[in-house]
Automatic annotation (TrEMBL):
This is PDZ domain-containing protein. The gene is WBGene00104755. GO terms for molecular function: protein tyrosine phosphatase activity. InterPro entries: Oocyte-zygote_transition_reg, PDZ, PDZ_sf, Prot-tyrosine_phosphatase-like, PTP_cat, Tyr_Pase_cat, Tyr_Pase_dom. It comes from the Eukaryota. SUPFAM superfamilies: (Phosphotyrosine protein) phosphatases II, PDZ domain-like. PROSITE patterns: PDZ, TYR_PHOSPHATASE_2, TYR_PHOSPHATASE_PTP. Transmembrane segments: none annotated. It comes from Pristionchus pacificus (Parasitic nematode worm). Signal peptide: none annotated. Residues 437-450, 459-481, 491-502 have a biased composition (Basic and acidic residues). CDD domains: PTPc (cd00047). Residues 416-502 are annotated as: Disordered.
Length: 502
């Protein structure tokens, strides 16, 4: 039992060990009289009143006094009287108590509030929460991709709305959509795009014209109309016209070794109202590089240097910035992603003599879906980076460090499983407005040398989609996964293709 100590007169006190004083809950306190009803049969009054209007009605010393005693209650039987002053309740001394009583809780050494806050902000929980928030992947939508399904080559090669390129309508029937993403890069942005189809050719020309592109790197076989509908003639002196809006004439063709061909084109926009209706367009075509395959590193490095030289001599856009460079393969994510990353790293090596490998890869993958989806492509990118470092003198060619780095990367290929045959279903190049588009298998993917039994992302750790179903068509050739549905999450990895192992 708690002990209540009260005094009948000043200086006099009486202890009643049998008197248990227990305050009721705070909501039972009368807010006007500030009198507390006790379970032992009496009421208290007095104390410090925060209301200045009630100050004259307080007891002189702001003490706590008995104001009412219920007859035949424990307080009455204990001899408690009105106006008795309560000195201590539950072993806590009141403000005017002369009885020294110390609570055991006061012996506990508490932490200073300032020290507590400083600890949190300096290196404690606040920092941990901030790091956790930074780890969380930003949400990415594909609402544009699902709205214009007829303009997409593949049902499962989605386009993130964040970082996508928007076209400006110029005529009735023009849309703002094209399957292309824009990535910042020193010396001019990079545009990663899928190859044009027959019914998206005008959109491809609009992309080139509106973004003021003067250099294109094409990684697809230009002879295959299904993988890339021809947007220029490959013989000098010939021209192609599209719907009376654009005309592209081939001025010159120059071969650079066996694997690179440079085309100089002139593109004309009939809808352009300004005097300058014609521009020079350079196309660098890399021959023989199949999707998801490694390639001759020297050819890639040479193509990077050619692209850089053409961009350097090309005109700048109106605001004084360098014009963007367009890179495309068939889907615009596999070879295109490797070349774009290698180009960015070459700019970093020349500019700062150091690279941010993981940071740049993460930024590109946040914008362009499916980049470096195979481990073999990541290893191939490392080979290109090492070659660029050796060429610029950052690493001495033929040195022990150089040879050891190359040997380590080549050894990584042995950790990659044998490639799987199969391909991604592709829409036919039929125009819009017809019946359901026929689907076929992209045979170029059946030549993959390096597969990936364990793709580069865990299930459920990829971007979140807040959108309607993409197409509703399943890509059975790549694991039978359907296009992303509403509120579904798709990871960074793409479905694996089914088929015989090579």
């Amino acid at each position: 039992m708690s002990t209540a100590v009260y005094g009948h007169t000043p200086g006099e006190s009486l202890e009643c060990m049998s008197l248990a004083i227990e305050l009721r809950k705070e909501e039972h306190i009368d807010p006007h009289t500030r009198k507390v009803v006790l379970r032992v049969g009496f009421k208290l009054g007095g104390g410090i009143d925060q209301d200045p209007a009630r100050a004259p009605y307080q007891y002189p010393d702001n003490g706590i006094y008995v104001t009412y005693i219920e007859p035949d209650s424990p307080a009455d039987r204990a001899g408690l009287r009105r106006h008795d002053k309560i000195l201590r309740v539950r072993e806590r001394a009141s403000r005017e108590s002369t009885v020294s009583a110390k609570s055991a809780q006061q012996d506990v050494q508490g932490e200073n509030l300032n020290d507590f806050v400083a600890c949190l902000s300096a290196g404690g929980k606040l920092k941990q929460h901030a790091e956790h928030d930074n780890v969380r992947r930003p949400e990415r939508q594909i609402n544009k991709f699902t709205r214009f399904t007829d303009k997409n080559r593949f049902n499962n090669a989605v386009l993130f709305s964040q970082g996508s390129v928007d076209l400006q309508p110029e005529e009735k029937g023009d849309t703002t959509y094209i399957h292309a993403s824009k990535i910042p890069c020193p010396g001019g942005a990079l545009i990663l795009s899928q190859a044009p189809m027959k019914h998206t050719l005008v959109d491809f020309y609009r992309l080139i014209w509106q973004q003021k592109v003067n250099t294109i790197v094409t990684l697809v076989n230009l002879e295959n109309k299904e993988d890339c509908f021809p947007y220029f003639e490959r013989k000098a002196g010939k021209k192609t016209t599209q719907r009376g809006r654009f005309r592209v004439r081939t001025v010159a063709v120059r071969a650079e070794g066996k694997s690179i061909v440079n085309y100089e084109l002139k593109i004309e926009n009939y809808l352009e109202k300004k005097e300058n209706k014609m521009r020079v367009l350079n196309v660098i075509s890399i021959l023989g590089w199949e999707p998801d395959q490694t390639f001759d590193v020297k050819v890639i490095v040479a193509a990077i240097h050619s692209a850089e030289a053409l961009k350097r001599i090309g005109p700048q856009i109106d605001n004084g910035k360098d014009a963007p460079m367009l890179i495309h393969g068939c889907s615009g994510i596999r070879r295109t992603g490797v070349f774009a990353l290698a180009y960015i790293f070459s700019k970093q090596i020349l500019g700062t003599r150091e690279i941010n490998l993981i940071g740049v890869i993460e930024q590109v993958r946040m914008v362009r879906y499916g980049v470096l989806r195979k481990k073999a492509m990541f290893f191939f990118l490392l080979e290109i980076v090492i070659a660029l470092m050796a060429e610029t003198g950052l690493v001495e060619p033929g040195s022990d460090d150089h040879l050891q780095a190359m040997a380590t990367v080549r050894k990584m290929y042995s950790t990659v499983g044998e490639g799987r045959a199969g391909g991604r279903k592709k829409k036919s190049s039929a125009g819009r407005g017809g019946s359901k588009s026929a689907e076929r298998t992209d045979k170029s993917e059946t030549k993959t040398d390096y597969g990936d039994d364990d793709d580069d992302a865990e299930e459920g750790h990829g971007p979140e989609y807040d959108d309607k179903s993409a197409t509703g068509k399943a890509d059975k050739s790549e694991g039978g996964k359907r296009s992303p549905g509403k509120n579904k999450t798709i990871g960074s990895k793409e479905p694996r293709s089914r088929g015989r192992k090579k």
